[in-house]
Amino acid sequence: MRSIDATNAPDSRQRRPAQLAEGELKHLESILACFVEGSIEPGRLPTKYWDMRVAQLDSDYELVPSQSHRVASLQRKLALLDAALNTASAAADAQERQNRRVAA
């Protein structure tokens, strides 16, 4: 019996071709644009979900360099959006606590 060398073993999970990633990239870019425009409420789907979807592109597809740059750009924009949402949420919480103190 011949042993299988790990370097010669077939990859059990083939990455998809870059051409198939294009539709996903366009979809994610349009969703992020809607979040930025404000036409989608940020609470509808958390940014962590969209960040996971973007990360899947990198792991599931054999991206060309321009697509990799777009993925990185999406990740940066999502991080900025998440930070802005967290800041806005913290400010709203502080305002609510202040309103309760005034009302008491």
UniProtKB/TrEMBL annotation:
Domain of life: Bacteria
Protein name: Uncharacterized protein
